[in-house]
Amino acid sequence: MMTIGLVSIVENPYIAVLLISIGAFSHQCLSTVAATLGGDLFKKDEVATAVGMAGACAWSGQLIFNLFIGAFVHIIGFAPFFIALAFFDIIGAIALWTLIKVKDEEPQVQLATS
Prior knowledge:
Blueprint: H1 13-41, H2 47-76, H3 78-99
């Protein structure tokens, strides 16, 4: 996804399309990983609810982002926008690594000793 940040400095439109394509492919790979996390992190009877809620949050975020993107690009231009896009996936990956913790399958039981 970092290749999208380079779009703001290239002159050739074919190179710009190539960089956007590489960024879009890597973003879709990250989206696939994020979509399958629900099956790994939740119990079998909780997966559908967790994935559905994650999808609803993602769609809401996408709607808000798309509503404001035209105004922001009009104000700041495309160059800073593409540079910001380059860092959004990295920020998301850091958030995933920070917030997702693997739970122990069996709780540790403390036995009383005499």
